Amino acid sequence: MPDDDGLISIVHGDYRLYNMIFDHEEESMLALLDWELSTIGHPYADLAYQCMNWYIPQIGITPGLAGINLEKLGIPSEDDYVSNYCSKMGINSIPNWSFYLAFGFFRLAGIAQGVYKRSIQGNASADNAKELGAAVPILGKIALSIVGREMLRIRFNSFSLLFYWLGLSFNLVYANSTSFEGV
Predict the structure, then answer these.
(1) Disulfide check for 132: which of 108, 112, 155, 158 has CB 3.0–4.6 Å away?
(2) Does a structural domain hold residue 182?
(3) How far is 150 from 158, CA to CA, in rounded Å?
(4) Does a structural domain hold residue 29?
């Protein structure tokens, strides 16, 4: 888990296109709906929630972007989207980005599981709530793949640093030795 960076904001909790009303004549959002999941939290939570769409396949009631030709549709890549956010916020990058993405997926899997359970109990608010049950393992697997990718990146960087250090150490020992016997 990343160290606390002190950033706090109102987090919508379900910040996505489906909850936005846009102006018909201008490129502007008029309203943001569906605030029942809002809370005080980290501002990257809503950004990560938006970016989860780049990882989600088109399953059930969730039309994700994974596997779609984004360039053809004029949709930016996740990297470009996050880079644009960083530019507008006056920052260079988002440290621990994978954490926010994985957290978002585990959070959404928990929410989907709860909706599915309520559908089984007969008290779900939506008619298609049972469909969310199928999404739970998919969301969990995506979260785990993000964690796994980050672990590989950390290990690769650690090994790269280790090999660099070992190479540097070997070069220093080799350069400072007066005898090359046994080297």
Answers:
(1) 112
(2) no
(3) 12
(4) yes
Which residues touch 47 (CB under 8 Å, ≥6 apart)? 82, 85, 94, 100
| Domain contains 2 | no
User: Residue 73 is encoded by which pair of tokens?
Assistant: 């549709």
**Is 56 contained in some domain?**
yes
Shortest CA distance to 61 belongs to which of 23, 95, 112?
112
For the chain, list the strands marked E by DSSP. Answer: 9-11, 20-22, 29-32, 39-41, 58-59, 62-63
Residue listed under structure tokens 């990343």 = 2
Classify each residue of 69-106 as buried b or exposed e, where b means 16 or more C-beta atoms within 10 Å of its C-beta: ebeeeeeeebeebbeebeeeeeeeebeebbbbbbbbbb
pLDDT tens for each residue of 114-159: 999 999 999 988 888 888 888 889 899 999 999 988 887 776 665 5
The DSSP line for 146-162 is HHHHHHHHHHHHHHHHH
Owning domain of residue 17:
9-176
Which residue shows structure tokens 């379900």? 14
